[in-house]
Design brief:
Blueprint: E1 7-16, E2 22-25, E3 32-35, H1 43-49, E4 57-62, E5 76-80, E6 95-100, E7 103-113, E8 116-120, E9 130-141, H2 144-149
Antiparallel strand pairs: 1-2, 1-3, 1-9, 4-9, 5-8, 6-7, 7-8
């Protein structure tokens, strides 16, 4: 079987930055499982995996515009601490979801000082060149439910569908 649209694909991978620092990895974890062709992973990775077989290994480097985009300083803004409930419990590194006109965005608190906090709504990997080392560990037919919902259902997906 090969990787093509509507296949459930399991990957082991290590993601590093240009300095060789490991940013994410499935080592010591279960493989990442995604629905190919459903936009569940970065488009350039999907392209690189298209047509691969089980045990295929690829190394793929993505520049920022092919990954999570360039870092946009306008997406990091300061706000008075008084605008946040439970401000005394907030700390640098805290992440939360913000609803925007473009949909939900993950925001990270990057600085707290002088009764203000800075919230950064850039993706944590924005502006970075990403180096993927990937091995295909399994390919299977997606279930009807997975195809209907556009993502893999394994164990407890934590998703809610009507």
């Amino acid at each position: 079987m090969i990787i093509e649209k509507d296949k459930a694909v399991s990957l082991d991978y290590t993601l590093t930055n240009s300095e060789g620092e490991i940013l994410d990895s499935t080592q010591q974890q279960t493989p990442l499982v995604y629905l190919h062709g459903a936009g569940n992973i970065l488009p350039r990775l999907e392209e690189a995996l298209e047509g691969k077989k089980i045990k295929s290994r690829i190394k793929k480097t993505l520049v920022p515009e092919d990954g999570y985009g360039d870092y946009n300083p306008q997406l990091a803004q300061s706000y008075p601490l008084s605008k946040f409930p439970n401000a005394d419990k907030l700390k640098v590194g805290t992440q939360f979801q913000v609803d925007t006109s473009g949909g939900p965005v993950l925001a990270t608190i990057t600085k707290i000082e002088n009764e203000e906090l800075t919230v950064d709504m850039n993706h944590p990997l924005a502006g970075q060149t990403l180096h993927f080392d990937i091995e295909v560990v399994d390919i299977r037919e997606a279930t009807e439910e997975e195809l209907k919902h556009g993502h893999i259902h394994s164990g407890e997906c934590g998703c809610s569908h009507e």
